[in-house]
Design a protein that fits this description.
Layout (H helix, E strand, L loop, with lengths): L1 H10 L9 H72 L3 H4 L5 E5 L12 E4 L6 E7 L10 E8 L5 E13 L2 E9 L6 E11 L2 E2 L5 E8 L5
Parallel strand pairs: 1-3, 2-9
Antiparallel strand pairs: 3-6, 4-5, 4-7, 5-6, 7-8, 7-9
């Protein structure tokens, strides 16, 4: 017991110098400084957290607005396309001399071997905006008959931005060769370089990868 008390006395021996008032004031000042720094750091982190939340909220709002604009643009394009096709059907009912402007032109494309490093040369003259164009996309021999419907998407060659898309297009036969045949308007073939991708649709869902792609360059035509 005496030994335990002796050891306790050694452990509880006061630190030398702490009884000095000056040292005590220095320690107190240090504690206050550390506390002040912690408070400032906490407030700074809270302010940064609020800024991050504001930025995330602004990003979500911008994303929602962009998606809304894209959906609106897609609806407007679909509406214009439907109106153009209806105009073409009405033109077909006109007398022969007046219906010439409503006759469909034909554009046949074959898939290139590889995607070029530069945009395709503008070899096709831009049709009139209201002109109906029969677009024929010749399928590669590797494309089998397991798919019946396809989605055709036209993208800007340089930016990859989707200009228009058409789903549910069936496979057809053109001059003894399998092809995708769809009707578009001249407005959908404005001057520029395009990459058209063909993606199979199965059970209402697009396949993960296109089975064929085509390139075409449309040059500026005469006065529209």
């Amino acid at each position: 017991m005496l030994l335990f008390l002796r050891e306790t006395a050694v452990v509880m021996r006061p630190v030398k110098g702490l009884d000095n008032p000056l040292v005590q004031w220095v320690l107190l000042a240090g504690c206050l400084a550390v506390t002040a720094l912690l408070v400032l750091q906490t407030r700074s982190m809270q302010r940064m957290s609020r800024q991050v939340d504001d930025l995330l909220a602004a990003e979500r709002e911008a994303t929602d607005e962009r998606q809304s604009l894209e959906a609106q643009l897609a609806r407007e394009r679909a509406t214009r396309e439907a109106l153009s096709l209806e105009i073409a059907r009405l033109r077909a009912r006109l007398p022969e001399g007046e219906a010439a402007a409503g006759e469909a032109a034909t554009l046949t494309l074959a898939p290139p071997g590889n995607r070029g490093a530069t945009p395709p040369e503008p070899t096709v003259e831009a049709p009139d905006r209201a002109q109906i164009v029969e677009l024929r996309l010749l399928m590669p021999d590797a494309v089998g008959d397991e798919f019946k419907d396809f989605r055709i998407s036209a993208r800007d060659w340089s930016t990859g931005l989707v200009r228009w898309s058409r789903a549910g297009v069936p496979l057809a036969v053109v001059e003894g060769r399998r092809a995708i045949v769809l009707y578009v308007t001249g407005e959908m073939l404005a001057p520029g370089a395009y990459e058209l991708s063909v993606t199979p649709i199965s059970n209402g869902t697009d396949a993960s990868e296109p089975v064929a792609s085509f390139e075409v360059g449309v040059r500026q035509g005469g006065p529209q």
